[in-house]
Every structure is written in structure tokens, then in C-alpha cells.
Amino acid sequence: MEKQRLDKFISSQLNMTRSEARSAIRTGKVTVNGLYCRDSGLAVNTQADIICFEGTEIEYKKYIYIMINKPKGVLSASNDKTRQTVVDLVPDDLKRNGLFPVGRLDRDTTGLLIITDDGAFAHDIISPKKFIPKSYIATLDGTVTKDMVEIFRKGVILADGTKCKPAILEPIEENRARLILFEGKYHEVKRMFGTVNLGVNELHRESIGELHLPEDLGSGECVEMNKKLLILAQKSTAYTF
Ligand code: URA
How confident is the model at residue 69 (pLDDT cuts 50, 70, 90)? Predict the structure, then answer.
């Protein structure tokens, strides 16, 4: 049984500040088990108590998980003074305090990104120890050769001497290839291709674990993830390199 102060419950579930939540409670907008409650400090049972705001029951979610099809030009961050961030694109009905992107895609990279307020989940998705594959489609200024596939399979050594984990490189057509990584170093895809003198013109992430970007999720659109999708995102793959 998880107990929580009523004002904390209201602010976290309805994307309000704590003082907005207190004011909503004080002004009689909140009921607990059918009775008006004006006590912000009341300890509510998040699983069992029926808490309504302006007559509508609040469905309690400890954490929220959102998939976004990240557009170009948007920052992978929670907030920024001047530039638009992925969290700015989350619609109001999914918005909460404490949202952040799970890992980062470069500003010019598009595709699948998860936004959540669950730090432990994010850590697991990013951690190289979990072997969760992240698959990218790269549009290149040249063609991938068999030698490059082998170099990537053994683990690229970046220009600064950093050793990358083995990765799967699959040519798709002349200037396009799929690259599957099991870690996420800064600008890793671009730096890896840089070591074999290939420039990346476009980069798109198509999947995390076994979670694929839905075809009908338009650029900049968000969708809440259900349990099934969460499990898919956390699927690791045992490749033999
Ligand atoms: N690697 C990159 O170079 N850029 C990204 O956005 C993601 C991975």
C-alpha cells in the first residue's frame, strides 16, 4: 500500500505545481472517496482511494512512458531557454512534472525516443550492461563495404581512442545502412562512420529493444506506452559477434 500526501498526488498526476494543487484542494475541486477534502496533507492510498478532480476520477500512474517520433531540429532535453525540446511536444494530457528523454538523439536525428519520469527504467534502457539494441538507419555519403561490416563487428576504435562495443552494420542500399548498437556514446553513430570516412547525412532511430517506431506515428507525435510496449523496449538480444 502506497500512501502519499493529497497535494503531492494531485500535482504529480495532473501536472500542477504543488501550490496549484493546494489551491485546487482548498477551493473544493477535489474529493476523496466521494467526500470533499480540503486538507492538502491528508495521506491517501494511491491504489485504493478514489480521488476525483472536478468530478472526474484520477487514474493513478506512478510513472508515465511516452513514445515520440522525434522531428529534426528539436532538442533531446527536458527544457531549454530558447529552443524547442521533445518534452515541449508532449501533449497536455500526458504531461507531468519530471519528464525527461531516455538517452539523447542529436538535434538533427529523427525517430524513436522514449520520454518518462521513471529514472530506473531509463537507466536500464541506456545501460550497456543490459544489451538492449538500438537500431538506426543512416543515410551516408558513400557505400558500406564488407570490410567496414567486419570492423564494426569487432568494435570500432574512435578517433580519440575510445573503444566501442561490437555493433551490427547491415548495408541496405548504395547510400543507406542499418546500424545496431548496444550502447550510447556521444554522437556514436556519426563518430563510428567517421572512422571509415563515411559522413552521415541523415540519421533515424527505428527501434529500441523490440519496440519499433509505429508507422502511423507522425513526426512530432507522441503516444503513451502500455505494459506490452514497455516489455518490448526492455528486450535484450543475445547476439554472438
Ligand atoms: N549517434 C549519433 O551520432 N547521433 C544520434 O543522434 C544517436 C546516435
Answer: very high
